[in-house]
Design brief:
heterodimer, A: mainly beta, 7-stranded mixed β-sheet, 11 strands, B: mainly beta, about 0% helix
Chain lengths: ~110, ~110
């Protein structure tokens, strides 16, 4: 079945460690996104990518990095520079950049920093 | 800038009708989305409105008034499984990427 797969679903990290969250899609979508969700808050955009080998900062990019070497994959690295990384991270995709189509979301990755 | 406002929490009775409001301010308008999100799960798309009026889709309907910067999601014949968070999202002017409101947590009780 087509969809978006995020892994791991749950992740624990010690302070000072970098961690990479995986996001893979087999929908042949051009655009991919990373959002962060905190309790009582809406989804906030971290990074997005419209095409392979290109990505743009969202509203809260500090302390995060991404890559888009393949159309299907858009991994997110949470670096030690991110001051408050404990959150629920959601990856999404849409068919094309610049369109107004819906976003398709993965199941999310819950990161806890100990 | 972008400002999206929706109630934090609502409760309703199984079988009833509930209306979840969303007001927004944006310099341009590229449509309004509603998503449903069950606790700990991914949001799923419910509706997209770009023209004024009511869009009906089964038990769920969504209304838009662009002049008032206002939308609502109407849920009929409520079921227990409708207990979830409902997210209103609006792309800011000049962008296609939606900015999300804080979401409305709907609790349906017997």
């Amino acid at each position: 079945d087509g969809g978006i797969t995020q892994s791991p679903k749950y992740l624990f990290r010690k302070e000072g460690q970098n961690v990479t969250l995986s996001c893979e899609q087999n929908l042949n979508h051009d655009a991919m996104y990373w959002y962060r969700q905190d309790p009582g808050q809406g989804l906030r955009l971290i990074y997005y990518s419209q095409i392979v080998n290109d990505f743009q900062k969202g509203d809260i990019a500090e302390g995060y990095s991404v890559s888009r070497e393949k159309k299907e994959s858009f991994p997110l690295t949470v670096t030690s520079a991110q001051k408050n990384p404990t959150a629920f991270y959601l990856c999404a995709s849409s068919p094309q950049a610049g369109g107004t189509g819906e976003l398709f979301f993965g199941e999310g990755s819950r990161l806890t920093v100990l | 800038g972008q400002n999206i406002d929706q109630p934090t929490e609502m409760t309703a009775t199984e079988g009833a009708i509930v209306q979840i409001n969303c007001t927004y301010q944006t310099s341009g308008f590229n449509g309004l989305f509603w998503y449903q999100q069950h606790a700990g799960e991914a949001p799923t798309f419910l509706s997209y409105n770009v023209l004024d009026g009511l869009e009906e889709k089964g038990r769920f309907s969504s209304f838009l008034s662009r002049s008032k910067g206002y939308s609502y999601l109407l849920l009929k014949e409520l079921q227990m499984k409708d207990s979830a968070s409902y997210l209103c999202a609006v792309p800011p002017g000049g962008s296609y990427i939606p900015t999300f409101g804080r979401g409305t947590s709907l609790i349906v009780h017997p």
